[in-house]
Request: fold
Amino acid sequence: MAEKIEGSQSYVFYMDVRTPGKNYEEFYKRATEEYGAKYIRGRVSKVYPQGDKLVVRGEDTLIGRQVEVEADMVVLATAMVAQPDAAEVARRLGFSYDANNFFTEAHPKLRPVETNTGGIFLAGACQGPKDIPDTVAQASAAAAKICALFSKDQMATDPMVSIVDESKCSGCLLCKPICPYKAIDGKKITERVNGKVLERVVATVNSGLCHGCGACTVACRPGALNLKGFSNEQILAEVEALCL
Amino acid sequence: MSVNEPAKQVQPETAEAGIQEKPVAQGAPAAAGWEPKIVGFACNWCTYAGADLAGTSRIAYPPNIRLIRVPCSGRVNPQFILRAFEKGADGVLVAGCHPGDCHYSTGNYFTRRRFLLTKRLLEYIGIEPERFHARWISGSEGPKFAQVAQEITEQVKALGPYRKPQDSEKTRDAQ
Ligand SMILES: Cc1cc2nc3c(=O)[nH]c(=O)nc-3n(C[C@H](O)[C@H](O)[C@H](O)COP(=O)(O)OP(=O)(O)OC[C@H]3O[C@@H](n4cnc5c(N)ncnc54)[C@H](O)[C@@H]3O)c2cc1C
Ligand code: SF4
Ligand code: SF4
Ligand code: FES
Reply:
């Protein structure tokens, strides 16, 4: 302030001064030491007009006394909140958001710019309150991730997809309507049974469409469907281990 | 949940007191120091994240719940639930995204229908259906996860240890 308007004096009412990040402490020091900004620890109880000035009344909790500042301009530092429709956007696109409606990244340390939904990336204040340098860093990372995605001819997908054990599959196709991604279809196979060549229908999973939800595996009566990575055997082994 | 709502802290002392007040409903009188085993199936996208949040927010909840991560609550085969009881679990929780919020759109609708059927199946084979719960807990509901864990643990504690049919046969033979 003092840099822009010579001879001006600024007061900052605060509860805690936190200066995370590079050069922020130096910025705070410069404001107080070089430009003489006065930091008053305490909450403001009232702001009211008096003539052509605004009077800010608050308490200085460090000296335990009421203070009044006659000011030409009052700036209120309000909280940064998420867009009102943020939760709705996240729900429609199928990724998660936190208790304050900021979008959550797929992993706070290892996947900080991705969402849980493939192909959707996060940058900036939608993910949480942040300043411009952090916004730019995250946006650059997201852009790099997107470039990497487009630089390949083939897309790598999750290996956790459903597979059909054709020897167990009866061809009932009860699993087909369960799949939300229309990944299951019937196909004809030929088999030799007792010297005779037989043709029958079995289910087949399109691994490019399957998202690995596992809903179909439960619907299959003979247990022909299994989900790689979360197979029946693996989950049952976990159940048994936890019940020991 | 409101933004400013403080995370509920589960106080271990009050939790203990709450449990001791409740009579053991049925089954063998709980041996001193008995702690129920509860197997929880948590969907990767909501409840597992919610449980994580409970952890990172330092909210205490009973350690009786042991979680198994599944891609979606719709992955949980009733067979897994039966196996848990067979192997000595005293309670089972299946938890996923809120209806309409399933990462795979429809998985939890199957869960809901299977839950009702499974409850009846459990009743039929002689397992108190109160031992089996399904809940919707989103990734932002860490406090809710802790609260559900607390509630279910208390309910199962009140029911006492689950006795498998063969256990009760054994005690009958011994008499
Ligand atoms: C008053 C104030 C002062 C600040 N001063 C500083 C400072 O001095 N230094 C500093 O480093 N940082 C400062 N910040 C923080 C900085 O402004 C933010 O970190 C930065 O702007 C975040 O960039 P962003 O691209 O994430 O969001 P924004 O710049 O807000 O961009 C989001 C864009 O998305 C659009 N949008 C929103 N919803 C939708 C929708 N549903 N569909 C389509 N478009 C949509 C919006 O219109 C907007 O154009 C300040 C912030 C505020 C509020
Ligand atoms: S995989 Fe199972 S449900 Fe699907 S067609 Fe084969 S037997 Fe039927
Ligand atoms: S696992 Fe889910 S997405 Fe994959 S085939 Fe089965 S129902 Fe479809
Ligand atoms: S992904 Fe959570 S219930 Fe389906």
In short: The pocket of flavin-adenine dinucleotide (ligand 1) is lined by residues A 83, 85, 89, 124-126, 130-133, 135 (CB under 6 Å). The longest strand of chain A covers residues 184-193. The beta strands of chain A are 11-14, 38-41, 44-50, 53-60, 65-71, 162-164, 184-193, 196-205, 225-227.
